[in-house]
Automatic annotation (TrEMBL):
UniProt keyword annotations, A-Z: Hydrolase
Gene source species: Streptomyces chlorus
Domain Peptidase S33 tripeptidyl aminopeptidase-like C-terminal: 7-90
UniProt GO MF annotations: hydrolase activity
Region Disordered: start-end pairs: 125-145
Classification lineage: Bacteria, Bacillati, Actinomycetota, Actinomycetes, Kitasatosporales
Protein's recorded name: Alpha/beta hydrolase
Superkingdom per UniProt: Bacteria
Length: 145
């Protein structure tokens, strides 16, 4: 299969990014660590680099649509913000949900730290049999096999 880059990706444009001052809108970026549609680095950069923006990163998760997610750690800050509350003051590195019939997630590559950053410059694939740092969920009917 040949992948062709669309020509519109290179059209000249006069558009520019808006100024990032106090008038920049309040936003939250939700990013799953293993999202195949939006690379983690892009979501992390937007969530930590834009003015008046907070990042919620979901560790060991690959889905693209992270809201609603079904955990208080991800959904509650978003719902509070959408209902007129404050956006999270700092980055949230939230635990991903385990696969059905499991109680924990597993680290496919370098774990995220509390700032949702990979601890090393170039993340490495890790042993997928080792439970993730934010892996264990104590509720649910899952069983590890």
């Amino acid at each position: 299969m040949t992948i062709v880059t669309p020509p519109c990706a290179f059209w000249p444009t006069e558009s520019r990014m808006p100024a990032q001052d106090e008038s920049f809108p309040e936003t939250i970026v939700l990013q799953s660590e293993l999202d195949s549609m939006t690379p983690f680095e892009q979501g992390w950069t937007a969530g930590t680099g834009l003015a008046n923006t907070s990042l919620i990163a979901v560790d060991n998760e690959s889905i693209h649509g992270v809201f609603p997610y079904g955990t208080k750690e991800v959904d509650r800050p978003v719902l509070d913000f959408l209902l007129g509350g404050d956006r999270p003051a700092q980055t949230i590195a939230a635990a991903g949900k385990p696969l059905p019939l499991k109680r924990s997630t597993y680290e496919p590559w370098t774990p995220l730290d509390e700032n949702a950053e990979h601890a090393i410059e170039a993340p490495l694939f890790t042993d997928p049999s080792i439970p993730g740092k934010r892996a264990v969920h104590t509720t649910g009917e899952g069983t590890d096999k």
